[in-house]
Amino acid sequence: MTTQPGALDELLAARDELEDLLVAQRLHAISSRTHLTAQQVRVLAVLQVSGAVPAGEVARLLDVTPATTTGIVDGLVGLGLVARRAGADDRRVRLLSITEHGQEVLRDTVVMPDSFGRELLERLTPDEVSGLLVGIRGMMRVASEGCAG
């Protein structure tokens, strides 16, 4: 059984639109709850993945200027979310790392609480829930067939 190309394109476009809406809602919730900007969250994420890195590397990874990075990091240091320390090999190099508190804030910020998805699902009509369930089960079936080899 094959899906109609037009229907598949429409489904993929709807998925992209839904993702954009969910990201926008999530960022709004993050900024109102934590008062962090999207750039500050990005810095925390980079440091969580990269460990202790020079500020210049953070700027490169985020594709922003070093001055922009300094401004973002200053705010995060002031909140106790990021730490600065001199490099072991070159004391002129300032290494940035996420603090334990920063890890907690990032975890609370990025991990979507169950209630977030539940609130959306509870607003669907019974027919929409049924259709979504059929679609998700179909995707699970196809994904599991792919894993079976």
Folded structure, characterized:
It holds the Pfam family MarR. InterPro entries: HTH_MarR-typ, MarR/SlyA-like, WH-like_DNA-bd_sf, WH_DNA-bd_sf. This is MarR family transcriptional regulator. Residues 4-141 form the HTH marR-type domain. By secondary structure, the chain is mainly alpha-helical. It folds into 3 domains: 1-35; 37-111, Orthogonal Bundle (Arc Repressor Mutant, subunit A), CATH 1.10.10.10; 113-149, no CATH class. 72% of the residues lie in helices and 8% in strands. The protein is built from 7 helices and 3 strands. The chain has helices at residues 5-34, 38-50, 55-62, 66-78, 100-110, 114-122, 126-148; strands at residues 53-54, 82-86, 94-98. A 3-stranded antiparallel sheet has the order 1-3-2. A hairpin with a 7-residue loop joins strand 2 and strand 3 (94-98). The mean pLDDT is 86.
Element layout with pairings:
Layout: H1 5-34, H2 38-50, E1 53-54, H3 55-62, H4 66-78, E2 82-86, E3 94-98, H5 100-110, H6 114-122, H7 126-148
Antiparallel strand pairs: 1-3, 2-3
Helix pairs in contact: 2-5, 3-4
Q: Brief description of this entry?
A:
The protein is mainly alpha-helical and 149 residues long. The protein is 72% helix and 8% strand. A three-stranded antiparallel β-sheet has the order 1-3-2.
- Termini separation comes to 19 Å
Order of helices and strands: HHEHHEEHHH
Compute the number of structural domains.
Answer: 3
Quote the CATH topology of the largest domain: Arc Repressor Mutant, subunit A
Tell me the β content: 5-15%
Please state the second-level CATH architecture of the largest domain.
Answer: Orthogonal Bundle
Strand order of the main beta sheet, please? 1-3-2
Pfam families: MarR (PF01047)
Protein name: MarR family transcriptional regulator
Domain HTH marR-type: 4-141
